[in-house]
Amino acid sequence: MSERRKAAKAPPQRSPDSYEMLGRNDRSYQERTSPPSSEHFQQLDPRDAEFVQHQSHSYNDVEYDQSYNNRALRPENQEYSDNGYDPSVQYNDAGYYQDNQNSNDFYDQPPPPLLPNQNSYYRPLPIPAKVLERHGSPSFHNVSLREPAPLEDSSRYAESVEEYDTESKTPIDPRLMPQVDPELSVLYDVSNAPPVDSRLYQTYQEQRMRHLKQVELTSGNLVVDCPVPDKVLKAGKFQSTHEFTHMRYTACTCDPNEFMNEKFTLRPVVYGRQTEIFVVLTMYNEDLELFNRTFKSMVKNITHLCSRSRSRTWGADSWKKVVICIVSDGRSKINKRVLNGLGCMGVYQEGVMQNSVSGKPVQAHLFEYTTQIYIDGNNAIVGPDKGTVPVQVLFCLKEKNAKKINSHRWFFNAFAPLLNPNVCVLIDVGTKPSGTSIYHLWKSFDKDQNVAGACGEICVDTGEGCCQVWNPLVAAQNFEYKMSNILDKPLESVFGYISVLPGAFSAYRYQALQNTTPNEGPLSAYFKGELMHTTDGNGGIFEANMYLAEDRILCFELVAKRNKKYVLKYVKSARAVTDVPDTLSELISQRRRWLNGSFFAMFYAIVHWYRMFTTSHNVFRKLLLFFEFIYQCVSMLFTWFSLANFYLAFYFLSQSAVIASQSTDPQIRSLDPFFGAGEIVTDIIRILYIMALITMFILALGNRPQGSKFIYGQEIAIIRFEARV
Predict the structure, then answer these.
(1) What values do phi and psi take at 215, rounded to 5?
(2) 178 neighbors 184 (Cβ within 8 angstroms)
(3) pTM score, two decimals?
(4) How many helices and strands, by DSSP H and E, does the chain display?
(5) Residues with catalytic annotation?
(6) 579 vs 463: CA distance, rounded Å
(7) CA 471 → CA 298, 463, 474, 577, distances in Å?
(8) pLDDT reading at 20 higher than 70
């Protein structure tokens, strides 16, 4: 081989301006590297995505660069035409490209370690640095991301790999061994890299990433198995199974409703596992602290399920029956620190994301990995040494911001039909369930097959030492949540119909959510609100306001489902802590949406009360539901007149001060708290109250409470003063 290389002629020199051997415009290069068809292969160009930090690989105490995106293809897998490129001619004995240019144009790359009796045919091919700087062109290295299959006859490799395969003592193709696989060898020597904090380092990193890869599509879909970083793998207990060594990336190019029809699949389905609990964590732009708090609580709940050794459903390997789906609403909206945290757990890799596949834009990026670690509140890595168990994570990063209801559509219509879970749990990032909450919710479904939905007690996060209770807004919401959990939900649970199951912490039986017809059923009614607030929506004002609280519509549709006898339950033992708005503008934005949606959804349920008689409930249950709707009518009337009731209560109570101020009896005048000026003071307060209502009505016509913080604060102060008087 060395004599052949010495006898080969060096390629003709070209001027720097005309040097295009590795460029995209080189026809011979394109013929060698172009895929057979766009339907079978996807051209991956990392320049279209952001870049990831490179990993490293240690061999014989020598650190080699091992970025997954920069691995050379095995020469035996490279196809060459008769007049095509021959690496043995272009490279000398040391493995360097010989183009008769200055040697400083190349990275000084040492040859990688070889096994005994292995020739130089498996040496990696280095890249001229000057060409990358000048053209920004990809190299001719086509990286195959498929898992290679062993050769049929591998006995001839037994002698060369025996010392590396001491456990199984079976002949293995040396090209599949990590110690000799060229994909794990070094492409560049990083000794010539600029300092990390210099301006040239980013350019240096981008140049190393510019490689053209060919990936065979799976049923026309881009599915890539990416190895996780070594540090992530070593932090876990299981380090050999493909489930833990590789993260799976899928580029979703279809609508959630077409996910199954487009032949997409998920790893739990491939492994043949039955999913008992499917949890969705909806996320928008929450910070890393809130995400870690929620994910940590979920890991504790799964660990608790694995500790129930006497259960007929749960046990040591119960983590295989639980899947956590994290849906982020918008690639540009997600907090970058959260992505870094997911990357530390092995769930996310940035450099593999693509913007399009075969000309179709990507709608969502799907990452699947079974992580064995998580990040606690102190940003410390917690692994199996602390008693944690593996967690199956499905991270769906939507390309565009399409609201929370669209995230639920990905969960219910795309992923759930494949997994077919028994119970679906809905949690918002920032909510912290207690260590046994998921089990108690699941137990309510296991005891009664007629339970279609359940919710637990949601508590306000009052901070360390209840310090946030000093904020009047937090204190008021804490009182409201407590009254709802003590009075409203237990009473409604007795009737069998809870008006709303909070989207921040609730659970549903997946079988009960299924539609009776394609256009009729709980999920069909639930997702009508997605198009209601877009240009394609055809609903009126009533429907637009009603679907601001689509979770209330879902609860009604479950109980009123035709020929079924489903009920909703309140589980007090399932507790969760959530953060509440602590500023006036945030509170107004939240409650304005809640009040409109709850009022119109309640009106919708009352108008359609007759649908309860089309169910399979017994007579006693129907009678209870009838009484509950009467209670809902009274509650709605009280809500409608609450503003006027407050004004009338103040008016009649203030008359005592007016009468006392007008009396001529000194003893009666002494009852006036305003020292004889009660009539004047009450008139002024009454006028201020009416002016405050008018001002708030005008401000409500806008859509930015953040821009009117001062005026809103004044109006609230007037109403609070009147309430105290």
Answers:
(1) -120, 125
(2) yes
(3) 0.70
(4) 26, 19
(5) 551
(6) 9
(7) 29, 11, 5, 17
(8) no
